[in-house]
Amino acid sequence: MPIVTRKVETNTEGYREVSVEFRAARATKLNARGVPRRTGRIRCPMLDASRTELSYGHKALPRTDKQALARWARALGLGPGSVKSIAYLSGPWYMGLYNVVRGDFDEDRVNAGLIVRLKRGVDTGILSTGHFDQLALNKLVWSIQPSLNGTMIDDTFLHGPTAARLYVNNDSMPAIMAHNIMNAESPRSGVGPTMSKFEMRQLLLGVLGQDIARDPARPGKTTRALSVRDMHDFYKYCVFPVPIEESLQAAGLIDVPVAIEI
């Protein structure tokens, strides 16, 4: 059996990611495990990725009590207090005080919980039905890059040269929000757009993204960006981008594979 060693590369813009060879081997392995076919997924992709053991052998968030939440939040560079507040309010509204008192929350109640209800369907749509929706991811990327309209944003495309410098960044936010609002359950979306914008800018980009320099003439000017390759693998395979993998591993929460046998 061939073995592909994990190699981290830094491109000319300063973005760090695993090599395409390792990414392809990882996708082959995770597809064989049935990771993309998993159902009953949590609509919050960060929580969903952290509460499955299929990608790293054990869960990045091993429990949902306050101690585990605090350790996980610090590894992600988030404030433990804010993470706990969001977690405790993630279930039905009447469970909020109970969650605070016991210092825990029920992940099985998140999809029908207060935060999801307040958003009223204003989201990417990628996990909205409880499974990975390839078409929804396609449409999200097409909204950012209209020239790709009709292209399947899958492993075959993403492991090719066209995707090497394809990013989601702050400039993508208007297109992303237009896409998310189109998924709303009704025209009266309330606070849904505000909550969705926070998730996209502060969590997806803020936590998973990296600061890169896109203008060679101005190397000191950076923008926050997440490669579409990493975004796809995060939603589909529950795999974190390199800097997050390293932080979670340093915190003792996951073991990043150094090689994959295919």
Layout: helices, strands, pairs:
Elements: E1 3-5, E2 8-10, E3 16-18, H1 20-32, H2 45-50, H3 66-76, H4 80-88, H5 96-102, H6 114-119, H7 134-144, H8 155-158, E4 167-169, H9 173-182, H10 192-208, E5 210-212, E6 223-227, H11 228-237, H12 242-250, E7 259-261
Antiparallel strand pairs: 1-7, 2-3, 4-6, 5-6
Helix pairs in contact: 3-4, 7-9, 9-10
Please tell me about this protein's structure.
The protein has helices at residues 20-32, 45-50, 66-76, 80-88, 96-102, 114-119, 134-144, 155-158, 173-182, 192-208, 228-237, 242-250, and strands at 3-5, 8-10, 16-18, 167-169, 210-212, 223-227, 259-261. With 262 residues, it is mainly alpha-helical. It has 2 domains: 3-54 and 62-124 and 225-261, no CATH class; 134-203, no CATH class. β2 and β3 form a beta hairpin. The longest helix has 17 residues, at 192-208. It is globular, with a radius of gyration of 18 Å.
- Radius of gyration, in Å, reads 18 Å
Question: Largest beta sheet, briefly?
Answer: 3 strands, antiparallel
* Mean of residue pLDDT values: 93
Low-pLDDT stretches: none
- Strand fraction: 5-15%
